[in-house]
């Protein structure tokens, strides 16, 4: 799993912009830079539920760090507010798109 590269890129975002900018900018950077690293090539792999939960966990921890909370409910509300899709949802969409192309 490419979680190590995801964590590395997410920490670079925190290191460069940190808390100096608003959360919306950080989330946009996450979507444009980190999520592609995490999701690269996964639509070709059959993943089981625990692997999908592992991907979601990595992103949820990023949100917990960003919003300084340990509540998963707060994280889910923030993800809904910013219209952020977790990796398991993205994966299923990408798998469907990949299968339709075949």
Write up what this structure looks like.
- The protein has 102 residues and is mainly alpha-helical.
- The protein has one domain (3-101).
- It has five helices and no strands.
- Helix 1 (3-16) packs antiparallel against helix 2 (23-39) and helix 3 (49-67) crosses helix 4.
- The chain starts with a helix and ends with a helix.
Please give the number of β-strands.
0
Name the overall outline.
globular
Q: Helical stretch count?
A: 5
Profile the largest sheet: none
> What sequence of helices (H) and strands (E) makes up the elements?
HHHHH
Q: pLDDT average, as an integer?
A: 91
* Total separate domains: 1
Give the helix proportion (percent range).
over 70%
Poorly predicted segments = none
Computed structural class: mainly alpha
- End-to-end Cα distance, whole Å, is 24 Å
Rg is: 14 Å
Keywords:
single chain; 102 residues; mainly alpha
Topology at a glance:
Blueprint: H1 3-16, H2 23-39, H3 49-67, H4 72-81, H5 87-101
Helix pairs in contact: 1-2, 3-4
In short:
The protein is mainly α and 102 residues long.
């Amino acid at each position: 799993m490419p979680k190590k590269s995801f964590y590395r890129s997410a920490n670079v975002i925190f290191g460069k912009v940190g808390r100096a900018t608003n959360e919306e900018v950080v989330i946009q950077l996450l979507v444009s830079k980190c999520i592609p690293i995490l999701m690269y090539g996964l639509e070709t792999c059959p993943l089981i539920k625990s692997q999908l939960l592992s991907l979601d966990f990595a992103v949820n921890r990023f949100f917990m760090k960003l919003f300084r909370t340990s509540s998963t409910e707060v994280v889910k509300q923030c993800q809904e507010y910013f219209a952020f899709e977790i990796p398991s949802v993205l994966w299923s969409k990408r798998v469907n798109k990949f299968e339709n192309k075949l």
